[in-house]
Each structure stands twice: as C-alpha cells, then as structure tokens.
Design a protein that fits this description.
With 238 residues, the chain is an alpha+beta fold. The chain has helices spanning 15-27, 43-52, 89-98, 118-129, 160-171, 196-206, 216-229; strands at residues 28-30, 35-40, 60-62, 81-87, 130-137, 148-157, 178-184, 187-195. The strands form 2 sheets. A 4-stranded antiparallel sheet has the order 1-2-4-3. Strands 5-6-8-7 form a 4-stranded antiparallel sheet.
Amino acid sequence: MQPRFRRRRALDWSSKLAYAAGLVATDGFLTTRNVVGFSSTDLELVETFLRCIDRPIRYQTMEPERQTGNSELGIRPRKTLYIAQCSDPLLYDWLLAAGITPRKSLSLGAVAVPRHHFFDLVRGLLDGDGSVMSLNAAPHGVANEYRLRRLRLAFYSGSQIHLEWLHAALSEYGIKGSLHAARRNGHTLYHLIHSERAAETILTTIYEDPRAPRLERKWRIWQEHRAARGIPNYQSFI
C-alpha cells in the first residue's frame, strides 16, 4: 500500500501552479469535500496536471460507452476519458482564493493570478479548453489559387464574464481579440478569438520558456506555423 499523501504547507503562486489553475478553471472541478479533480481525453495533460500540483500520478479511465456526453448538444463521447482527483484541503482553499469555485462552468469570472504568472495561467486555459489553428486560406476577396498561412487562437467557455475578464486582461498588453457567442439547443458557448499578430504575440509569450508545462500537441501546431512563417523561436512581443 502506498503512503497517504498529505500536503504540509500552504501554497503560493508559481509557474506550474498557475498553469494547473488554468487547467482546473477549464476542464477541472471542485467538490464540497475538499476534492480537486481534472479530466481530459489527453492522458499527457492529466499527468502534467498531477506533476504541476505535486501529486502522485494516479488516475481513473472511463471508456466512451460509460460516458454520458450531452444529448442536448449532440455530443457523443468517442475517446477514453482520464480522470484525476484528490482530497487536498490546501490546494482546494488556494483555488477558491483564486476565484475558482464548485459549479463554476457558467459562473467563472476573473482568476486572481499575480501579473508575473498571468501568461502561465493563459497557457493552462488554452490547453484546457482552447484551440490553436494554422490554416492555408485565400486572402479576403481574392478568388485565385494563392494562399496565405493564417493563425487563429480560440478560448472557449460557458461563462461570458470569464471570457470578458480574459479579453480585458489581454487587452492591457495591447492584445486585441473578439468575443463571440454561439447558441445551440438552448445553450450558449462563448468564444474569445485572436488572429494573426495577436495570436502570435500570445503564443510567443506563453511558450517563451521551453521548460514550462504545456500540451505538446498544441505547441507543435505553433512550432510548425512559426517555422513556416519564419518567426523567431522564443521572441516575446510584450
């Protein structure tokens, strides 16, 4: 039997914990009994989360046929879900103090992250529930075979006030985006979109430290786009 884990001192912000907070704010959960959890179909992301909060690498698996999905939104699970959860009062209280609460899906607002760890949090928000897209597309209004490589970054949330906060926080760095809402079967999903230079600014900044935790799959899309456009490897525009 493995020894029981017990955290011995209160937590303070760090690059790893700010990233983990971003993951919990998107695809994580808090219960009313000091339990903190995170689930994803990316096993790499679950294991990275556990390392960031200094917990043993333990998780459960749930096959698609055992998952409920969301029939109202037409969501049918197709991948194995990996679920990590732990009883950790100090971590739980730290997340509450940051503004991440139980039943946060529609009510999440600002996250009280120190300014010097803001982009670590952003990287967690992107990896938890965001997308990086690099596409070859025709310039607007040009009907020919010429194509440009376009970059698009999106953050998703069921909480409008959370994305409004993120939008405003990024704007303080001169990063402009656009907020959109898509309604489907009575549910609204909000999107914060950044394109081209704004997306490049965010990505060069969040990936400036090659040692920082990240989801390799999304980072690789950026690396391929960066190489194709000739953007320096780790050059922050901020």
